[in-house]
Amino acid sequence: VHGMIMRNILRRGLSTTITMKGVACEGFGGPEVLKIKEYPIPTYDPKTECLIKVEASALNRADVVQRKGNYPPPKGVTDILGLECAGYLLNNISELKNGAYKKNKRVMAILPGGGNATIAKANKGEVMDIPSKLSFEEAASIPETWITAYQLVHWLGQIKEGDNVLIHAGASGVGTSAIQLVKHAKANSISVCSSAKKISACIALGASLGINYKETKEFSKEVLKKGTTNGHGADIILDCVVGTHFEENLKSLAEEGRWVIYGFMGGSKIPPPKLTVFFAKRATITFTSLRMRTQAYRDKLVAEFAKEKLPQFNNGSLKPIIDQIFSINDVINAHKRMESNETIGKIILRVDQQFILII
Q1: Which are the contacts of 352, defined by CB distance < 8 A and separation ≥ 6?
Q2: Positive or negative, the Cα torsion across 321, 325, 329, 334?
Q3: What is the dihedral of CA 66, 72, 74, 75, to 10 degrees?
């Protein structure tokens, strides 16, 4: 199929209008609103941007929230879903002829949108070389997830050796990444999950304790107990849940603790907060959304992560955790898998040869 399309391009000339495919929503709601649509190849500024021939992308919780109409893309960003991708750097569209782009550099990128497509536009400051030992599918699991986790643990959580870190959704993509980063910082992580299977996965990655919140509603008691933090509490809380866990998190928080909120999976409504407790603990609470950060902030974060952590993927001390790989044509079932809340690690979308260009 690929060869036939490229011969057609060559025969008819590259001036022919070429479109690509992308995953977007027709309306808002369940996975059934997802559609594969035709799009023009993105225009870009070669001084600051580049194009990537996508080989694999990934699914993030933010894609589900956007699909439901609760997380619109930033102004000027495509409506194509996908906050990360891995593939080949494209120097120009003509390299699509006969697959010449496959001789180019393998790269991965964090994106404000557009990753679930044939070709993605990326800011050059957010593009990283793929570690040589990783496949495209493994690489696609890194940019959004690992850079988010790095930001949470190091920039916002300001982790120190010996810290106790309470990680909600520990078996998620961000959770499994954060557990490994905490371990490398010589700190301790406590993972909050919804099943014994997920807890086992978190312990295997380096968590010192796993708590099943469905069985242990008052999980703060487990955080504070002797042998865990010995009454000290969590120095850092990485929280993508909020609502349903708010009071237990407050009880778990240590003096001078850093509580970092990056999602609202448990809702945004909370009991009237006991501000005197925050005051007494001299605690800090921070909200963050990486997608809404400035370009300068994102570029600096990506550069630091690439320098400090990417080499560790080649030596095996850090590893991407993949739950399941779907064809991008099967994106509806990929979304259903994510909403099952049974995942451990990342859901990957492989861009098949059939998902290429349309003349």
Answers
A1: 327, 328, 329
A2: negative
A3: 140
Q: What angle do CA 113, 118, 120 make, to 5 degrees?
A: 35
pLDDT recorded at residue 164: 98
Query: What are the backbone dihedrals phi and psi of residue 164, each rounded to the nearest 5 degrees, phi first?
Result: -105, 125
Q: Which pair of tokens denotes residue 348? A: 């990957």
Strand, coil or helix: 238: strand
pTM, entire model:
0.91
Among residues 207, 174, 171, the alpha carbon closest in space to that of 189 is found at 207
As a whole number of angstroms, the distance between CA 206 and CA 189 comes to 8
Q: Of 108, 157, 110, nearest to 297 (Cα)? A: 110
> Angle between the 295-308 and 143-150 helix axes, to the nearest 10 degrees?
90
Alpha-carbon distance of 82 to 72, in angstroms, equals: 12
Yes or no: say if 2 and 352 are a contact pair by the CB < 8 Å rule.
Answer: no
CB atoms within 10 A of CB 269: 10
Measure CA 350 to chain center.
16
Terminal C-alpha separation, the chain: 13
Instruction: Read off the amino acid at residue 4.
Output: M
| C-alpha separations of 145 from 56, 66, 132, 135, 245 in Å | 15, 17, 19, 16, 22
DSSP state of 162: T
How many CB atoms within 10 Å of residue 4? Answer: 8
Are 241 and 230 within 8 A, CB to CB? no
Give CA angle at 264 (63, 115), nearest 5°: 15
d(CA 242, CA 224): 19
Helix boundaries (H) for 95-190: 136-140, 143-150, 173-184
Count CB atoms within 10 A of the CB of residue 121.
23
Walking along the chain (359 residues) 10 residues at a time, the average pLDDT comes out as: 47 59 96 96 95 97 95 93 97 84 96 96 98 97 97 98 98 97 98 96 97 95 95 97 92 97 87 86 94 94 98 95 97 97 96 67
